[in-house]
Each structure stands twice: as structure tokens, then as C-alpha cells.
Amino acid sequence: MVKVEFPDGTIRESGKNRIKDILRDVGQNENAVLVVVDGCLVTPDLCVKNGTEIKLISVVSGG
Amino acid sequence: MKCIKCEENAVISLSRHNAGFCKDHFTEYFHRQVEAAIKEYSMLKTSDRVMVCVSGGKDSLVLWHILNLMGYKTAGMYVSLGIGEYSQKSKAKVLAFAEKNKLESIIIDLDEEKCPIPLLAAKTKRNACSVCGQVKRHYFNKVALDGGFTVAATGHNLDDEAARMLGNVLRWDTKHLAKMSPILPEEGETIKRKVKPLIRLTEKEVAAYAFLNGIDYIPDECPKSRGASSLKFKEVLNELEAAAPGTKHFFYGEFFRAAADRFPYITNESDKDEIKKCIKCGAESYLDVCSFCRLTEKLNG
């Protein structure tokens, strides 16, 4: 499983391995977040191993 | 995914350009987009003294960073809104950025001015975002005039403006559709030219630039903006963008080719009589007392 940390600090797990699929699995639009693995930005086509922790950074602001 | 320019691993994928970029080439792309916007709309001259309206968020700090890199004479103008911890944290980000880059910052504190946004919104029974916009416009104009600035630059990006345009179209708000351009002219003595140099870049691209270039910003949403319709419009546009990359750019950009001439820009000056000075604060106004002073008068009521 891959551990996904949301911008509000909540954690979810996904059984997918490609970032694009993980985002879809946790209901997150890829245009609304940056995805960080090991402190680096990654692209949606990247595949990660089981046990990887990914962090989502919200990019949406304004009111 | 590899960088389209050098075959390094890409750090960002831009579906609307069918391209991925490494850090260095993304930074190059980003700077080129800002330069293109400034040139396309004749936003800035090298002789300008630029007031960058900063909030402590990613967009305005990235804008300040880039305009400074490009050699423009800038100062950051920040209005502390009096919204508790959020205001304290955002002000700290602005001051830290200014200190790190040895840049001038101008701070207006609404608690010190005795008109914090939560109090004004409560007293006037108005939406906080609407009151906030009115108050910030007053101080932007005042500081620009007092400080001798020739232009005010804001960090609005493509997502901000596409969402605003969508809202205006859904309401057929012709008055505001006429003000969608990323450059608005100066009016009278007090209202300076307003420009939006990040207009060609998406919110995600701005956030990626901030992350990759170590620009420390406040990621928190303004607590008063929760439930704002603009956030819903952004969500809808992101869904459309995922299905059809380039939608936001096309929707916003093509407006100026296909429809803008049907919504001509009308200055505040042209549809009113005579411009005066507010008898309370001296700002330009079409009434004896300007809208800001009429708003703050309600604090005494």
C-alpha cells in the first residue's frame, strides 16, 4: 500500500502504484495538488513502490 | 517522464503544452511566460516604480520574486486584515521574504487602523470577502499615491481569472466582464495602472515554481474564504482541464479575441459627473464622502 498525506494532514492509503492512479483512487484532481515523494516533485506517470509515502500540497487559493 | 528540453527526469507535467520539464527548464519556461505577458499587454516599463500587492501566499510572493529578478524597482505592499492567527502568519511570511531578499515592504495593519475585516463585516452585515476587497482597494490606492508608485501588480494567475470569468459569465455580469483584461488603466490621480503578470500561468505552475525555488509562503486558505463561489468555479474548471487540457487557457484567452469588444471598458470617471476629494480622507470620490469612509463610519454606529 502507498500512504497519501493530504494537505490538511489526514492520511489515506491506496493500493495503486502509479501517481495518476493513486490520485484518482483518493479522489484528488491532479490539477489541484503538487505531489511530493522524498522531498521532490514528481509527475503523474511515475510508479512508486509499496510502502512509499507521498505528500500532497494544495495549489488552490483565493476567495 | 523526461524533460522535453534535456532528457533529465521531469518534475512537472504540463498537459496543456504536452510537455514535461526538469527544474531548470521549468524555471526558464516560467520566466518566459511572465516576460511574454508583460510584453503582450505592455504592462510594465523599466522606469516604473512597481507596488506589488502581497498577501503572504504563493502567487504574490512568486510575482515579487520574479519582478525583482527581472530588475524592476519593486516594493511589497501588505494589508494585515486582522484575521487572528492567519494574519499573523501571513504577515510573518511577507516580512521574512522582504528581509531575505533585501526588499522594501509597506505594512498596513487593520487592527491598528481600527477596522479589522471581521469587525467591519459584522457591523455592516456584509460578506467578509466583499468588505475585504473594498478595504484593500482603498489602501492600495492610498499607498500607491503616497509612495509615488506608477503601477500596482497583483499575483492573479490563469486559474483565478478563468474562475472569475466563469462567475461573470454565469451571472452575465457585463460590468465586470468589461474589466477582465490583465491590465487596467489608471484613473484620476489616485488609481494607478493595475497589472497581472502571472496571467499566462496556472495555479499549479505557480505553486510548483514556489516549491522548486524555495519561496516560503503561507499555504493556509483565508478562513473567511471557505465556501466562496470562486473555489467551486476553480474545482469545476480543474475537472474540465483534466478532461480537456488547455480549457482554462482557451476560455480566458479567447474571450479577448471573440467577445471582449462586446463588453467595452468604461472607466468609473466616464459614467459619473465630477470627481471630488473625500472630505474625510482626501481620496478621490464621486461623492463628498468616499465608499471606504462610508463603510468605516458604520463602526461608530
Please tally the helical runs of chain A, counting DSSP H or I stretches of 4 or more residues.
1
CATH topology of chain B: Rossmann fold
* Secondary structural class of chain A: mainly beta
Spatial strand arrangement across the major sheet of chain B? 5-4-3-6-8-7
How is the biggest beta sheet of chain B arranged?
6 strands, mixed
Radius of gyration of chain B: 20 Å
The averaged pLDDT of chain B comes out at 92
- Span from first to last CA of chain A? 36 Å
The CATH architecture category of chain B equals: 3-Layer(aba) Sandwich
- Record field, number of beta strands of chain B: 10
Major protein interface: A-B, 22 and 35 residues
- Beta content of chain A: 25-35%
CATH topology category name of chain A: Ubiquitin-like (UB roll)
- What is the CATH architecture assignment of chain A? Roll
Distance between the termini of chain B: 62 Å
The CATH class of chain A, by name, is Alpha Beta
CATH homologous superfamily grouping of chain B: HUPs
Strand order of the largest sheet of chain A: 2-1-5-3-4
Approximate helicity band of chain A: 10-25%
Query: Treating each run of at least 4 consecutive H or I residues as one helix, how many helices of chain B?
Result: 11
